[in-house]
TrEMBL record:
Chain ranges of the Amidohydrolase-related domain: 64-429
E.C. numbers: 3.5.4.43
Species, as recorded: Comamonas testosteroni
InterPro entries xrefs: Amidohydro-rel (IPR006680), Metal-dep_hydrolase_composite (IPR011059), Metal_Hydrolase (IPR032466), MTA/SAH_deaminase (IPR050287)
Residues annotated as signal peptide: none
Family: Belongs to the metallo-dependent hydrolases superfamily. ATZ/TRZ family.
Keyword Hydrolase among record annotations: yes
Keyword check for Zinc: yes
Molecular function via GO: deaminase activity; hydrolase activity, acting on carbon-nitrogen (but not peptide) bonds, in cyclic amidines; hydroxydechloroatrazine ethylaminohydrolase activity; metal ion binding
Pfam families: Amidohydro_1
UniProt name for this protein: Hydroxydechloroatrazine ethylaminohydrolase
Keywords linked to the UniProt accession: Hydrolase, Metal-binding, Zinc
Length: 461
C-alpha cells in the first residue's frame, strides 16, 4: 500500500543538497520512496489518493522527520549482561576475561530473545538498519537465531558471522571453551551466505563475515574469511585498534600496527569496516581514506572502557567513511542511537574543541555515514528511489521545549528522545511511540528470566 507522510515541521533529507524541507512530505510505495518535497507541492495524484483513502496517511505535524539511523556495531546478546558488577570498572582485556565464561552459557533462546530486545531498544531510539556482531556460539547457538529475531522485528539487518579460533592455550585471549575450529567457522560462513545473503537493492538481510579481533583469531582465518567474503560479494567486519593494549598486542605478536596488520591481511577496502579505531595512527587514517575502509565509531563504549577519544575529526577531514555503533550492551549499557550521535558530537568536542563536530554532522554520520560504511547506496537519505526508512521525533515533548529555534540541531543537543513513529522498508513499525512488531512487555519478561538463568548456569558450573 502507498504510504504518505505529510506536514512534518522539518523533513531532513540528507540528500545531495542536504535539504531540510519545512512542511515536508514524502510518498512511499512498498520498499521505496517515490517522492519527497513540501506538502504544499504534493502532486495531485498523491493528494487524491490521500483524500480518497487509497493510501495510508501519517500526519507529521509537530514532528521532525529524518532518515532512519544506522547502527554499524553491536553485540546484541550482551543485553543479557548489562551492568555486571565484575565488569563495571575494567578496561577492555580484563573486562572481556570477566565476561567470556559467563557468555559460554548462552543458549539459542537467549540469543533470540536478547536480539529481539536489543532491536526493540534500537528501533525506539530511531534506528532502522543495524548490524550485529555475534562471535560466540555456545550450546548449539547459531547466527540463524538472531536472523529469525530480526525478521520478526522487521529491522533491516546486516548479520555479522563472528568467530573466535585462538583460545588461551594457543596464545589468544578467550578461554578455549568459547572458540571454534577454523574449518567449521568457514563452512558455517559459506552456509549462511548461501542461505540468507541478499545483495539486492532494498535488501532486508545481508550476511557479513566478522572474525572477532586480531587477539582472538589467526592470520589464516582473517585471510580465508576475506577470500570467502570477496568471492560472494559480502562485507567484512572486525574490531581494530581499540585501545593501547590492543596496539601493543599487535606490535608484539605481528610486529605491525593494527592498520599495517589490516593491510597485510587484505582487510582494507569499501567492503570492510572496523569497529573503534580509537588508536588508528596518521598512517592508518591515510590508508583507510585511500582505500575507502570504514570505521564504526562507538563513543559511549570508548568512554565506558576508558579506551580514549577516536580521532573522528581527523578521519572525516581525511575522507575516511565513518559511521556510528552503539557497541555491545556490556560495554555501553544504553543502546540509544540518537544518544550515540549526541555522544559522538560531545566527545569530539572534549578532544578537539567546540567546533570539532556540529549536530548536523553527527546526524549525517548516523545516517549517510552508516549507509556508506555498510557499503549501501539505498539507505541513509530520503530521496526518490531510496529505501522507505524514516523516523519521526515529537518536538512537542518536554525535552525539546524551547528548542524550536533549530529543531534539527535540537535532536542532537537535547536529551535523546525515543521516536514517535518509525517506518522500515515502507512498513510502519512504531506508531505513537509504541512498537508494533513485538509484544514488548512479553519479550522483556522472557529477557529478565533468561538473564537470571544465564547467571544461575554460570554460578552452578
Ligand atoms: Zn564490539
Amino acid at each position: 500500500m502507498t504510504l504518505i507522510a505529510l506536514n512534518a515541521d522539518v523533513l531532513v533529507t540528507m540528500d545531495a543538497q542536504r535539504r531540510e524541507i519545512k512542511g515536508g512530505a514524502l510518498v512511499a510505495d512498498g520498499p521505496a520512496l517515490l517522492w519527497v518535497g513540501a506538502t504544499a507541492e504534493l502532486p495531485a495524484q498523491y493528494r487524491r489518493m490521500a483524500d480518497e483513502g487509497q493510501a495510508r496517511v501519517l500526519d507529521m505535524r509537530g514532528k521532525v522527520v529524518t532518515p532512519g539511523l544506522v547502527n554499524t556495531h553491536h553485540h546484541m546478546y550482551q543485553s543479557l549482561t548489562r551492568a555486571v558488577p565484575a565488569a563495571q570498572d575494567a578496561e577492555l582485556f580484563s573486562w572481556l576475561q570477566n565476561l567470556y565464561m559467563l557468555w559460554s552459557h548462552l543458549t539459542p533462546e537467549m540469543i533470540h530473545v536478547s536480539t529481539q530486545t536489543a532491536m526493540a531498544e534500537l528501533m525506539l531510539s530511531g534506528c532502522t538498519t543495524t548490524s550485529d556482531h555475534l562471535y560466540l556460539f555456545p550450546n548449539g547457538s547459531r547466527l540463524d537465531d538472531s536472523i529469525a529475531a530480526a525478521q520478526q522485528m522487521g529491522m533491516r539487518f546486516h548479520a555479522a558471522r563472528g568467530s573466535m579460533s585462538l583460545g588461551r592455550s594457543k596464545g589468544g585471549l578467550p578461554p578455549d571453551v568459547v572458540v571454534e575450529e577454523e574449518e567449521a567457522i568457514l563452512r558455517d560462513s559459506l552456509r549462511l551466505i548461501q542461505q540468507y545473503h541478499d545483495g539486492s537493492r532494498h535488501s532486508m538481510l545481508r550476511v557479513v563475515l566478522a572474525p572477532c579481533s586480531p587477539f582472538s583469531v589467526t592470520r589464516d582465518l582473517m585471510r580465508e574469511s576475506a577470500v570467502l567474503a570477496r568471492a560472494h560479494g559480502v562485507s567484512l567486519h572486525t574490531h581494530l585498534a581499540e585501545n593501547d593494549n590492543d596496539v601493543a598486542f599487535s606490535r608484539e605478536k605481528f610486529g605491525l600496527t593494527p592498520a599495517q596488520y589490516a593491510e597485510d591481511l587484505g582487510w582494507v577496502g569499501r567492503d570492510v569496516w572496523h569497529a573503534h579505531c580509537v588508536k588508528l595512527d596518521p598512517e592508518g587514517i591515510a590508508l583507510f581514506a585511500r582505500t575507502g575502509t570504514g570505521v564504526a565509531h562507538c563513543p559511549c563504549s570508548n568512554m565506558r572502557l576508558a579506551s580514549g577519544i577516536a580521532p573522528i575529526r581527523g578521519m572525516r577531514d581525511a575522507g575516511v567513511p565513518v559511521a556510528l555503533g552503539v557497541d555491545g550492551s556490556a560495554s555501553n549499557d544504553g543502546a540509544h542511537m540518537l544518544g550515540e550521535a549526541r555522544q559522538a558530537m560531545l566527545l569530539q568536542r572534549v578532544g578537539y574543541g567546540p567546533a570539532a563536530m556540529s549536530a548536523r554532522e553527527a546526524l549525517e554520520i548516523a545516517t549517510l555515514g552508516g549507509a556508506r560504511v555498510l557499503n549501501r547506496d539505498d539507505i541513509g537519505a530520503l530521496a526518490p528511489g531510496m529505501s522507505a526508512d524514516f523516523v519521526a521525533f515529537d518536538m512537542e515533548a518536554v525535552g525539546y521545549a524551547g528548542a524550536g529555534h533549530d529543531p534539527v540541531a535540537a535532536l542532537v543537543f537535547c536529551t535523546p528522545a525515543n521516536v514517535s513513529s518509525s517506518v522500515i522498508n515502507g512498513r510502519v513499525v512504531v506508531e505513537d511511540g509504541r512498537l508494533l512488531t513485538a509484544d514488548l512487555p512479553v519479550v522483556l519478561g522472557q529477557h529478565r528470566r533468561l538473564a537470571r538463568s544465564l547467571f544461575e548456569r554460570a554460578a552452578g558450573q
